[in-house]
Amino acid sequence: MPDGLPEDIDNGEVNPRDEFKARARYLGEKYDYDVTEARKIWSFGPDGTGPNLLIDCTKGVQYLNEIKDSVVAGFQWATKEGVLSEENMRAVRFNIYDVTLHSDAIHRGGGQIIPTTRRCLYACILTAQPRLMEPVYLCEIQCPEVAVGGIYGVLNRRRGHVFEEMQVAGTPMFVVKAYLPVNESFGFTADLRSNTGGQAFPQCVFDHWQVLPGDPTETGSKPFAIVQDTRKRKGLEEG
Q: Cα–Cα distance between 42 and 201 in angstroms, integer?
């Protein structure tokens, strides 16, 4: 998906309740989507509102409307429990280009279509170089000027980065704003205090998601280790 679209979906700028022509026009103008395809969004997922899209790009497929509900159910299942570690997917667009269906209606039921859709979407993800995403905190840290150096040291060790530093007018205090991956935030306050002589006071709130660097399918990478740990914790097959 183009940058910014998942956030637009999260914020409700683009949502399933929009009039489909107006939504397609918005996607075409802002994100360069093909307007014809954007009019044929079947579903948002997971939970019918999430930041993933299922789009019908087919031309004249027989019986397609009969299986639409089942395909959407498979899509909801796949985006709710992703292929790597059964966590929610984010910022993924699935296009349906062709469907070959059994001519006998009894073989086009939900029991056949839903799990098949899920397997098909999983295969799409695995061949599209998937990446893990991690939540990121916005941290606002107040401290005197002498403690600012200690803050930078702690943040650098934890993959954080400062994007704003300013002095509070009329006081000796500084406010440092930084992004810090949630995964690196455990024990952050204690670490910060010990490196600044107890003079820094952090406040952290969730801000956004970012891609975790590295390939989760490559043995030995950090994302691979996280996937393995998550699968183990959930009692899933490893590998």
A: 47
